[in-house]
Design brief:
The chain has 310 residues and is α/β, with parallel strands linked by helices. Helix content is 27%, strand content 30%. The strands form 3 sheets. Strands 1, 2, 3, 4, 5 and 11 form a 6-stranded mixed sheet that branches. Strands 8-7-9-6-10 form a 5-stranded mixed sheet. A hairpin with a 7-residue loop joins strand 13 and strand 14. The termini are far apart.
């Protein structure tokens, strides 16, 4: 397998900055791709060992392009995640003033994070989406647009100037990135883990989502992300992308997945991996009987009953 990581490019994206925080990135060739889809396809075809892509931000939630790519196609698996604090700079060609700006560009996920700033300072500027924030900077360099929202670090790479910095509508905004590879055995649990799955209901009925969520609740498994995505089979047909606390090797998580497998049309396992915030899962009260010790004890009791040792 080639020792390379694909990532959402071009050079100078927040994705690249986040990727370089991984120790293993220093031993891989880092190859920029023009889109999330092409980066993940590079893994599916064997061109890259893994792909590093954004999957969620604290302002708008899940990044739909990434979620949809993980929902469809050949299965892939998440191995790592990184959290990166995000603040934008307004990058322009040298000599550009704020009054000169008629068009701005950035990745679609950036717009909700700078919407209020844009309304206040550039209310008449037309917004155009770019494949990534760094690609927006490249388009400004080429003269296609007047300004781009991107990381300040991208200015030098594209011969631009940061006209404004520290732009963000929400304090402490973060984006979550994931390292995605082909399916394999998950890494050993760390005690501070996350499990990601996709669920498809057998049919649409009153209380259907409640039934699925009940599989988590009765076992004390806390959800960290719940987002519906259309299946493409018509209006009203959705699957559910879910992040839950814990590791598939945890008894209560494993039993939750087994319960979901029994009642769902389809379950896609996207991986169990260390949480970037290193926060251990917490079983909330009042939920007696939901600790791993209690699940193990109950399983041992059933085994003894089967052996006639009760």
């Amino acid at each position: 397998m080639p020792a390379s990581y694909a990532y959402l490019g071009p050079e100078g994206t927040f994705t690249e900055v986040a990727l370089r925080t991984l120790p293993e990135a220093a031993t891989r060739e880092l190859i920029p791709y023009v889109s999330v889809q092409s980066a993940l396809d590079a893994v599916r075809t064997g061109e890259a060992e893994a792909a590093f892509v954004p999957i969620e931000n604290s302002v708008e939630g899940g990044i739909t392009t990434t979620l949809d790519e993980l929902v469809a196609g050949t299965p892939l698996m998440i191995y790592r995640e990184v959290l990166l604090s995000i603040t934008f700079a307004l990058l322009v060609r040298p000599g550009t003033e704020l009054s000169d700006i008629k068009t701005v560009t950035a990745h679609p996920a950036a717009q909700p994070q700078v919407r209020n700033w844009l309304r206040q300072h550039l209310p008449d500027a037309a917004w155009e989406s770019a494949a990534s924030n760094a690609d927006g900077a490249r388009l400004v360099q080429e003269g296609r647009y007047d300004a781009a929202f991107a990381g300040e670090f991208a200015a030098a790479r594209y011969g631009l100037e940061a006209l404004e910095t520290e732009i963000h509508d929400a304090e402490n905004a973060q984006t979550r990135f994931v390292l995605v590879g082909r399916p394999a055995r998950p890494a050993a649990p760390t005690g501070a883990d996350k499990t990601s799955i996709v669920l498809w209901q057998r049919n649409d009925h009153p209380g259907g989502l409640r039934d699925l969520l009940g599989e988590f609740a009765t076992r004390g498994v806390n959800l960290m992300l719940l987002q519906s995505r259309p299946t493409g089979a018509g209006i009203g047909n959705y699957c559910f992308c879910i992040d839950a606390e814990g590791h598939i090797s945890d008894r209560r998580v494993a039993e939750t997945l087994m319960g979901l497998k029994r009642v769902c049309l389809q379950v896609r396992f996207l991986g169990s991996y260390p949480r970037a915030d290193v926060q251990p899962a917490e079983v909330r009260d009042p939920l007696p009987g939901t600790s791993d010790t209690e699940f193990a004890s109950a399983a041992d009791w059933v085994a003894r009953c089967q052996d006639g040792r009760f």
